[in-house]
Structure formats: structure tokens, C-alpha cells
């Protein structure tokens, strides 16, 4: 099981959760350290499946069969985590430079839905919360090392 502790939800699926800290508030040495540590990083399959399952479990059971599950969604979620953890714009994520060609066209749409916690799927909204928590914890672990 991944070393991730999700915060409890408040029951509402309409809130997109807290916004990432502003770039102005980010310490430049911390930001640099995070970007260096995450330069070749992507969400591993086990963690991705855990987060997606957790998002499904926290939402209405009729959405259990829906939601993110493939490699493109996992890579898009990786970009969303990178963006929040590094306080950078998602288009600068190193993963976008190394990913297969067709991936970016589809991931661009998926990434924004995940990052903004919007869309028609309660699973996607909950996944946004979980990814935000994961990014915050990942950044804290990098800062501590």
C-alpha cells in the first residue's frame, strides 16, 4: 500500500478543494529542489490505482465502474501532481517532453479536468482532492529530505 494518507472529505463533491499555494509564496530554493526531485518522476501504477479506487469508494456507488483507469489518465494525474507540488504551470512538466506523441492531445483535456476538480464525474472531483493531498505530502517529503 502506498505511503499516502488522504484527508477525510466533507461530504460535498462540488468544492474543488484548496488552491495550490501561489508561486509568489513558494520559496525559490524549495521550488527548485522539488522540480529537481520530480524531473523524471511519474505516478506509479500501484499508487494511481489506489488513488482511483479511493476516489471511487468515496463517491456514489453508481460511479464505481466509471472514472480514470488507463495510462493516459495516470500520466495526466502525474502532471497535475507535479504542477501542484512544484507551483509550476503544468505545460512545463518534464513528463510532457518525454511522453509518447498522441498522449498530450488527450491528456491536456484530462489534466485540466483533474487539476480543476471539474467535470461531470464525482469520481474526478474526488480524485482532484486526493491528488492535491498527494502532491502536498510529496512536496513535504521532498522538503524534508
Topology:
Blueprint: H1 28-37, H2 45-57, H3 71-86, H4 94-98, H5 103-116, H6 122-144
Helix pairs in contact: 2-6, 3-5, 3-6, 5-6
Shape: globular
Which bin fits the share of residues in helices?
55-70%
Report on the biggest sheet.
Answer: none
Order of helices and strands, N to C? Answer: HHHHHH
Uncertain runs are 8-25
End-to-end CA span: 21 Å
Detailed description of the structure:
Mean pLDDT is about 75; it is low at about 10-25. The protein contains six helices and no strands. The longest helix is centred in the C-terminal third of the chain and has 23 residues, at about 120-145. It has helices at about 30-35, 45-55, 70-85, 95-100, 105-115, 120-145. It has one domain (about 25-145). With about 140 residues, the protein is mainly alpha-helical.
Could you write a compact summary of the structure shown?
The protein has 145 residues and is mainly alpha-helical. 56% of the residues lie in helices and 0% in strands.
Please tag this protein with its features:
single chain; 145 residues; mainly alpha; 6 helices
Amino acid at each position: 500500500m502506498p505511503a499516502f494518507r488522504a484527508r477525510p472529505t466533507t461530504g460535498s463533491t462540488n468544492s474543488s478543494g484548496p488552491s495550490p499555494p501561489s508561486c509568489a509564496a513558494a520559496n525559490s530554493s524549495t521550488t527548485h529542489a522539488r522540480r529537481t526531485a520530480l524531473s523524471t518522476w511519474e505516478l506509479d501504477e500501484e499508487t494511481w490505482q489506489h488513488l482511483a479506487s479511493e476516489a471511487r469508494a468515496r463517491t456514489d456507488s453508481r460511479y464505481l465502474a466509471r472514472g480514470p483507469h488507463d495510462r493516459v489518465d495516470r500520466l495526466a494525474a502525474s502532471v497535475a501532481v507535479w504542477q501542484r507540488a512544484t507551483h509550476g504551470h503544468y505545460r512545463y512538466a518534464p513528463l510532457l517532453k518525454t511522453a509518447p506523441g498522441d498522449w498530450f492531445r488527450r491528456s491536456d483535456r484530462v489534466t485540466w479536468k483533474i487539476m480543476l476538480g471539474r467535470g461531470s464525474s464525482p469520481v474526478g472531483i474526488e480524485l482532484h482532492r486526493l491528488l492535491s493531498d498527494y502532491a502536498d505530502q510529496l512536496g513535504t517529503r521532498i522538503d524534508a529530505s
